[in-house]
Amino acid sequence: MNIRELVNYLQGLQENNNRAWFAMNKPSYDILRVEFTQLVAQLIEDVARFDPAVAGQDARKAQFRINRDIRFSKDKRPYKSNFSAVIAPGGKKDPGAHYYFHVDHAGKVLVAAGCYMPPADILAGIRRHIAERPDDFSALLRKKRLWNHFGAFAEEGRLARPPKGFGPGLAHIEVIKQKSFIVWTETPVDGMSAAGLRKHVADGFREAFPLVRWLREAVG
Predict the structure, then answer these.
(1) Helix %, strand %, coil % for the chain, to 5?
(2) Annotated domain spans of the chain
(3) Which of 31, 119, 165, 188 gives 20 to 30 Å between its CA and that of 81?
């Protein structure tokens, strides 16, 4: 896909986030959307080589809509300023672990994986899995390539105190306080070719696979 054209389009959308501009530039959007769908399809194939559970996912259904849900938001801008997709065995509604990426108006690609703000039952299951099988989680923490690539869990929404039912002396209690279990990186796309972008995202997903696999075990 033409990465420069995609970023230019998203910059224009960010600066003119209204229906009139979107309608006037719909031909560009349609072309870019087709190209992005092709990229997502290629990434599904790439990921399926090391994670067969995602094989056969529909690239069109893996993408998020450009329209924002503004029903309950003070921000009434109608459109997102990124192209994004998620890859998971059950698609976007899969409550387990996901691979996610987007390219945004700032010219950056975000590559992420894990469980983001899972439902209460899923979150409780992950926390119990850590508490009941601390050695397994310790083994995950020893995956050097995973943590060298991503650094650490994102701490968005992390609790200040242990959740109910989990004592402060438990192993890995600081991780049990998490409300999400995700890792992510953000990288400028300037100078990347289409093949380079595909490789960058696929490589990140491959490094995140041990976390995705562990989370699937945790949620059953």
Answers:
(1) 50, 15, 35
(2) 3-219
(3) 119
Q: CA angle, corner 154, sides to 152 and 155, nearest 5?
A: 115
Mark out the alpha helices in the chain (DSSP H runs): 3-15, 19-24, 26-50, 59-62, 120-132, 134-141, 144-150, 173-176, 194-219
Q: What is the DSSP letter of 112?
A: E
> pLDDT per position in the chain (220 positions), as tens?
899 999 999 999 999 999 999 999 999 999 999 999 999 999 999 999 999 999 999 999 999 999 999 888 888 999 999 999 999 999 988 888 999 999 999 999 999 999 999 999 999 999 999 999 999 999 999 999 999 999 999 988 899 999 999 999 999 999 999 999 999 999 999 999 999 999 999 999 999 999 999 999 998 8
Q: Give the number of C-alpha atoms closer than 13 A to the C-alpha of residue 161, restricted to the C-beta side.
A: 3
